[in-house]
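Thread: Newbie trying to understand structure tokens

Hi all, I'm a second-year student working on a class project, and my supervisor (Dr. K.) asked me to get a predicted structure for one chain before our next meeting. I've only ever worked with sequences, so writing a 3D structure as a token string is new to me. If someone could post the tokens and maybe explain what I'm looking at, I'd be very grateful. Here's the chain:
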Amino acid sequence: MSKERTRILIVDDEEIVRESLSAWLEKDGYTLATAPDGETALARIRKERWSLLLVDLKMPGIDGLQVLEESRKVQPDAVAVIMTAYATVDTAVAAMKIGAYDYLVKPFDPEELSLMIQKIVTQQALVRENVLLRKVLKRDYHFRDLISKSPAMQAVFDLARTAARSNSTILVLGESGTGKELLARAVHAESPRSQGPFVAVSCAALTETLLESELFGHEKGAFTGAAVRRKGKFEMADGGTLFLDEIGDISAKLQLDLLRVLEDRHFFRVGGSESIHVDVRIIAATNRDLTKAVADGSFREDLFYRLNVIPIHLPPLRDRLEDLPLLVEHFLEQLGAEMNRRLDDVATDAMGLLMAQTWPGNVRELRNVLERAMVVASGRVIQLSDLGLRRPPCADVASGGVLGSLDEVERHHIGRVLQESDGNISQAARTLGIDRATLYNKLRKYQLRKDGEPETETEHSESE
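---
Reply by user tm_fold:
Sure, no problem. This is what the structure looks like when written as tokens:
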């Protein structure tokens, strides 16, 4: 922040102090205002934004500590400096506890004051820059409601953004809980169809008869209980996107019906004779291996090729554990807003246990674990006991099994990222979210080479 944009409020009951401070600081290029008492100061603090508050400790009525305490409630980002001619350890401690940056003893040197304020302005600029950088990084890690910094998921985001601009059918593949519907919604939101409807249907949740009616609708009297004509999901999604979840579970008859719709975008309601045309973009998803299903005859090959125009594979959480801290932070914010409860962090041993899981339920399972932890946690930090998880048995790193301690998890993860980066330290550091110096320190700590492999005894002894 420039000096002109740094707004300073001087609060002192002595006019000569207010005038002299204003004169000094105006020469330094700051924007100044003054208040003769605590009441006036608080009125201005409630109405205007301030970068810095210079507040006298002893004033009639509302004293400096009260001004400081109230200002922290209204403008917690404003830095406060207490001024006093009666400096004692007790007053300094009291001011610091409430949130004062520092205190000045009257009479003070103008040069000392200028240096202190310059230091505060510099620190505020760094804090703002850090906040902005974190926002930029978070935005880079997001694709709508999906969040990841792993190279595999970043490639997914890039492909999904490109695919969103087309009208082609997309097939989303991945285990349960990896976020297939979230990806479908993100593609719809990024597409030219974003103003149209997004309609989702789970193909595994209904019987063949009910699913046929759900997809294509039915005419009055088409079957027992069909008292009125009803539109199906295809009609509801006209002009937008239809998401067919668990497409691998539909029957042979519905596979044929769906193939016909994909070929010409025409269909008939159940019990109807009128051909209905729709303009719908199809996104299908499954956790099944459709290639294997085609091979064993349980899924039509021609339908598979119709769906598999743009395949997008979502990797399981266990293959992108570098995302876990980011996801934890995201879910703590999200759940905190939903539950009207704020939790600040996860204890180190609790995070270690989260990192040691295989997560068969993937991101959905992680969210459920954190929701449970937020309900039972007694403090502002989630503890190991709040998670309700058992520590998996420790397995050999080389075998690719579950790891034990947090150090083991970190060592194994760094080694894997280095291998995927082909020993490129800069790329590996970016993936890990750390700088090169920190990565080199961890290589020495864990006795790893740049290619991610363990150092030999000879290499280790030479490095010592």
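A couple of things are worth pointing out once you decode it. The CA atoms of residues 125 and 216 lie 59 Å apart. The chain has four domains: 7-135, 146-315, 318-386, 397-463. Feel free to ask follow-ups in this thread.
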